[in-house]
Amino acid sequence: MKTELDEINRNIYDIKNKDDYDFKIKKGLTREIIEEISRQKNDPEWMRDFRLKALETYNKLEMPTWGPDLSELNMDDIATYVRPKTKMTGNWEDVPEDIKNTFDKLGIPEAEKKSLAGVGAQYDSEVVYHSMKNELLAQGVIYTDMETAVREYPDIVQQHFMKCVPVTDHKFVALHGAVWSGGSFVYVPKNVKVEIPLQSYFRLNSPESGQFEHTLIIVDEGASLHFIEGCSAPKYNKVNLHAGCVELYVKDGAYLRYSTIENWSKNMLNLNTKKAIIGKNAQVDWVSGSFGSKISMLYPMSILNGEGARTEYTGISFAGKGQNLDTGFKVVHNSRNTSSLVNSKSISKNGGTATYRALVRINENAKGSKCNVSCESLMLDDISRSDTIPVNDVRTDEVEFSHEAKIGKISDKSIFYLMSRGLSEEDAKAMIVRGFADPISKELPVEYAAEMNNLINLELEGSIG
């Protein structure tokens, strides 16, 4: 009998560097701490005021009580700003050796050489490396860190910053508005097609801290972009917090694909918020893989404002021992002939909890709209849990709407069949799980599909008693 491993060998993801920083804010969340973050970041006055108002909103809003238990989160134990010992650079050789080695092992520079048009790498609270190919610059594409955008493109940032995701949405968005740091800003001009993906990678190293990056992407009329987001952190014994925010503005006739592979460590509370506003005949496709983290509450949202707007969501989550991954998708149909397609899959094992939580709202003025939702859950044992909690709010009869959900265990017959063909029980299970996840990996670029398959293998390691 194989002994179950207490700790999955997360290999490269658990690299820990010394907690060596240029500046780390004291733990807690007070007006003085927010003012100090603002000073450290040389905020313009409007951003300082925005942060302070967001803090007031945070203090007024209640903790969410409808999802996973967040009682172990104590903001008095979290440092909300950690500046690494480096300035942002466009030259990889100028990045400090320990930080560079971490990103080297995660494969970021190699991916940039092979398949990316631009890369941003964030370490703790600041972007440490940023580059973009010259041909994109010549086309007028802007891809930079959020701090630079606040300074150099104040009008466009002020016009869009936390208008798609207002601080009143929920308590952790308000927290983000108060302490945000780092993240990416992208503007793609009208009719410009960015053929090769851009990527930002977020790495949290410092224990008992939070990461609050802000991503703001504007794809102008007729333009297109594929943006990839990667996240990871090493394991510590104390809680770390991730409460980032993603705002996507996709104008008439534009296209955006937003792909994410999140591989946080098992001490991370991942409370991220992502939302897109989509114009006439425009489309946003979300591809999402959620691994790691102790608790995730993550529900990307598409708001279909323009006639003929479209969105697709393809997502997978993998919950193991001690994990509660509460994920899903939200879509609001606000105009005629809009369409949405949702394909969600979850896997749970060793007592993990995977929940699909969703909202579909088709408003009265969205006649002729179509929505198809499919969610499938696979449990690898008798002690894991999977729940589907959909809210379907359809306010007009002139629509096509379907929702199907399947929850089940791996079939003993399937395992027996594969074992009769010479596979071990472990390999048979792994093959079934990889087949279950295949529709998601097909939507990812080759390098990220390989990473997702590696993560599935790591999660399965030692899971058969």
Number of strands: 25
Number of domains: 2
Please give the share of residues in helix.
10-25%
Q: Report the mean per-residue pLDDT as an integer.
A: 86
Q: Total helix count? A: 11
N- and C-termini, Cα separation: 6 Å
The shape is: globular
- The residue ranges in which pLDDT falls below 50 over 5 or more consecutive positions are 1-10
Which radius of gyration do the C-alpha atoms yield?
A: 22 Å
Largest sheet: number of strands, sense, barrel closure: 13 strands, mixed
Description:
Helix content is 24%, strand content 37%. It is of the alpha/beta class and 465 residues long. It is globular and about 65 Å long. The chain has helices at 31-40, 45-60, 97-106, 108-115, 134-138, 146-152, 154-160, 171-179, 412-420, 425-441, 446-460, and strands spanning 21-24, 82-84, 118-123, 126-132, 142-145, 184-188, 198-203, 210-211, 214-219, 224-232, 240-242, 245-250, 255-264, 268-270, 273-278, 283-292, 295-298, 301-304, 310-319, 324-333, 339-348, 353-362, 369-379, 385-394, 399-409. Residues 1-10 have low confidence and may be disordered. The longest helix is centred in the last third of the chain and has 17 residues, at 425-441. Strands 5, 6, 8, 9, 11, 12, 14, 15, 17, 18, 20, 22 and 24 form a 13-stranded mixed beta sheet that branches. It has 2 domains: 11-412, no CATH class; 413-465, no CATH class. A hairpin with a 2-residue loop joins strand 3 and strand 4 (126-132).
